Amino acid sequence: MATNNSQQSGSGPPPKPWERAGSSSSGPAPFKPATPGSTSDVVEASGTARPGEIVQSNNTTSAVNTLGRPVPPRPWEQQQTYGGAGYGSSLGYNSGLGAGGYGSYGGMGSSYNSGGLYGNSMYRGGGYGGLYGGSSSMYGGGMYGSSYGGGMGGMGMGMGMGGMGMGMGMGMGGPGGPYDDQDPNNPFGAPSQPPGFWISLMRVMQGFVTFFGRVAMLIDQNAQAFHMFMSALLQLFDRSGLLYGELARFVFRILGVKTKPNKIQPPGPHGQHGQQIEGPKSAPAGGWDGVWGNNAPN
Amino acid sequence: MPAFKTPFNGYAVKFSPFYEQRLAVATAQNFGILGNGRIHVIDLSPAGPIAEIAAYDTADGVYDVSWSESHDSLLVAAVADGSVKLYDLSLPPTSNPVRSLSEHTRETHSVDYNAVRRDSFLSSSWDDTIKLWTIDRPTSVRTFKEHAYCVYSAAWNPRHADVFASASGDCTARIWDVREPGSTMILPAHEFEILSCDWNKYDDAVIATSSVDKSIKVWDVRNYRVPVAVLNGHGYAVRKVKFSPHRASVIASCSYDMTVCLWDYMVEDSLIGRYDHHTEFAVGVDMSVLVEGLLASTGWDEFAYVWQHGTDPKAP
């Protein structure tokens, strides 16, 4: 370990073990023999050189999709795909849990749910295109949307992971709001300069997009580990068996079903005690009517 | 051998092809999601602790690093802001990076230096492209854009100066010749995203791919209908795969199941070693070209380990 295979800078490294081993390939050579010369010369001679070409990300129209099936949208694209769905949806997690499926992007569809609250997606992307990514929902019929039908305008930012949610809403009601002329997405007027505040906000949101893009990539590469983590988390919450029980009660209450309070009746003073032990209580007239406790005898 | 503690989460580790005791470690703050990055160049010493030779800070996480095959002091780094940066250890820190190449429009995920012709390197990115660079030019020589999803890794053929392979999230691995306009071969290698690929050093027609489906597959590019071998044993996605520079059929891999595994794909019980020294995702592994059996790994537990195969990586 202490020996120092010192090499002069500019010369090559020590020969590789496989170079010392001699010829390669166990069969016919699969590739054309290498062309002598420097890499740039070889590429230029082949006519394929495109120096400094910038490819806009996700320009898949040029890509040859040989899969025969559509590739999933990238995590950072999904805000555009789903308009004002908010950032939470890009994780596709909410519904992913419900559906129990973790196909890399499973459940994006239904995670749109809360997105609908925040403005329509009429101007999704708008003049800001993909540049501002997810922030597009901000203008999507939101803040400036009042001139197009009014109603509830909104700026929505939602991130949802499991049960943790964060929402921010700004509403502006009524037809013909005071900002009509300033609508930066108004296709009929000259584009106006968006205020500096919004620019900075959009930069912040761009940061959010990058952040969630990277989180989503990791989840994407690691869907099962994430699943394990979240199920462990849920199990932890459900340690006392309360979580799902309470959830079920809540659902029942919403459905209008009143659940029976889980109390043990104290023994009555009139000698019903023995009756309870000895056998089934004789059903009052009307049998099942009192089963949910609405008009229980006592 | 003692471990090296990095302040950030490890992403890649590479042995120098010139000095057997030297390594470079690429790290990123906050698991590479948000924050800065740092490249450490470390020297092993026979008895004492690992010494840090140099450290370079970046404004975004560093996902991969590759040593130059032409200059012993030159390093190439893949940075999460989409740039590819070149560092020269022989220059003072203020002069580094000597070059910052910004053409990728999204995170650069891997870099690989051409070991045969030694004047060029590849970078692969989440913008679905691979770029070919030479050290004497400020712009890329050409761009390979065929993949339909992020390209996680690109690796030069160790015996052929013009051929390389790429692994992508579009579930294909592709073989390319820099003289051809498009890819020369498309391997629909896995049903899930492919995270890494590497060439057999002793048979230039054999590549290995690792995937989110937890498996490693070995392919002969002359007959790619069926894999030569399928290596199952990792519990989660296999992040990196690397052929041994010394043994034709030995493969090292690291995975999100926090283990580093060693395989011999020619024998029936192909799993020949499993190391579970990492306490977080193991995302970087390398095998020394100069010392047979010397392995290095890094992971999100902020440690880089170097050990001889068969010994305990945590043994002091």
Give the secondary structure arrangement, pairings included:
The complex is a heterodimer of chains A (298) and B (316).
Chain A: H1 17-20, H2 39-46, H3 78-81, H4 88-91, H5 93-99, H6 136-139, E1 157-161, E2 164-168, H7 196-221, H8 223-237, H9 242-254, H10 272-278
Antiparallel strand pairs in A: 1-2
Helix pairs in contact in A: 7-8
Chain B: E1 4-5, E2 9-15, E3 22-28, E4 37-43, E5 51-58, E6 62-67, E7 74-79, E8 83-88, E9 99-102, E10 108-113, E11 120-125, E12 129-134, E13 142-145, E14 151-156, E15 163-168, E16 173-177, E17 183-187, E18 194-199, E19 206-211, E20 216-220, E21 229-231, E22 238-243, E23 250-255, E24 260-264, E25 271-275, E26 282-287, E27 294-299, E28 303-308
Antiparallel strand pairs in B: 1-28, 2-3, 3-4, 4-5, 6-7, 7-8, 8-9, 10-11, 11-12, 12-13, 14-15, 15-16, 16-17, 18-19, 19-20, 20-21, 22-23, 23-24, 24-25, 26-27, 27-28
Question: Could you describe the 3D structure shown?
Answer:
The complex is a heterodimer of chains A (298) and B (316). With 298 residues, chain A is mainly alpha-helical. Helix content of chain A is 31%, strand content 3%. Chain A is built from 10 helices and 2 strands; from the N terminus they run ααααααββαααα. Chain A has helices at residues 17-20, 39-46, 78-81, 88-91, 93-99, 136-139, 196-221, 223-237, 242-254, 272-278, and strands at residues 157-161, 164-168. In chain A, strands 1-2 form a two-stranded antiparallel ribbon. Chain A is elongated and about 85 Å long. Chain B is mainly β. Chain B has a single domain (4-308), classed as YVTN repeat-like/Quinoprotein amine dehydrogenase (Methylamine Dehydrogenase, Chain H), CATH 2.130.10. Chain B is 0% helix and 50% strand. Chain B contains no helices and 28 strands. In chain B, strand 3 (22-28) and strand 4 form a beta hairpin. Chain B is globular and about 50 Å long. Classes of the chains: A mainly alpha (298), B mainly beta (316). Chains A and B meet through helix 2, helix 7 and helix 8 of A and strand 12 and strand 13 of B.
